[in-house]
Amino acid sequence: MDILELVNTRLRKSYCLQSLRSLTSPINIYRQLLPQTKLLDNHQLIDPVAAVYERGMPEYQGLRRYVRKGILDSIATSQSLRDVTWIFTDSQSSGEVGATAVADYIHAAQTRGSLLISVILTCDGDENVRRMTSKQRGKTKLNDVSILLDIRRDEDLYRFGGKAELELDVSQLSVASAAQTIAEFITKTTFIAVE
After folding, report:
1. How much is the average pLDDT of 70-98?
2. Cα-based angle 74, 77, 82 (whole degrees, multiple of 5)
3. In the chain, how long is the greatest CA-to-CA distance?
4. Which of 10, 62, 85, 190 would give a disulfide with 157, using CB separation of 3.0 to 4.6 Å?
């Protein structure tokens, strides 16, 4: 069985994953975890939209959904990509916008006939701030500490729940340790799903 994985990282917590030394970034973890996969980083979906609209503009979310849905639908129905395991980094809240985005991922997994595994990477607040204020962060990534603190305080992460979801605190974990933990979880989850 192939796996369509969603690395569902919360905004308030996922930004901690951008390490100064790139030791615990989700991209580095998953390259070590499954080097034969394709990774679609959430900023590959956000950056084209951010080039056109600012986040607060009324058209922003509509274009984000259009881009995300178009790419997911293409992946889900492509025969050329049928044997590829996909990893997506994304962060969605439990509100309407987040639930709509998550529904797009679920629809793609169902269309493709793939198992959807959610891995939530977290870290403590101080480490989150340290990593998000790194000079190495991209220009469309959150770097305003007050916004980060508001998000950590006020927003709830969308959770799939169930046996196909793992939450992992990477505050003190190396890439290798995080990858090992996730690999064990995916192996166990895939085995359960196949039985």
Report:
1. 87
2. 105
3. 47
4. 10
Residue type, 91: S
Given a contact cutoff of 8 angstroms between Cβ atoms, the answer to whether 178 and 168 are in contact is yes
- H-helix segments, the chain: 11-14, 26-33, 42-50, 60-77, 96-112, 125-132, 145-154, 175-194
**Gap between the Cα atoms of 195 and 72, Å rounded:** 27
DSSP-based three-state secondary structure for 118: strand
149 beta partners: none
Residue 75: phi and psi, rounded to 5, are: -60, -45
CA 113 to chain CA centroid, nearest Å: 20
Tell me the whole-structure pTM to 2 decimals: 0.75
C-alpha 100/C-alpha 51 separation (Å) is 22
Average pLDDT of 175-195?
75
Cβ neighbours, 10 Å, residue 162: 8
Residue 61's closest CA among 101, 95, 93? 101
List CB contacts of 136: < 8 A, sequence separation 6 or more: 18, 20, 22
- For the stretch 28-39, pLDDT in tens is 666 565 556 787
Concatenate the DSSP letters of all residues of 2-46 into one string: -EEEEEE--HHHHGGGS-TTSSS-HHHHHHHH-TTSEEE-HHHHH
Q: In the structure encoding, which two tokens stand for residue 118, read together? A: 């959610």
- For the chain, the average pLDDT equals 76
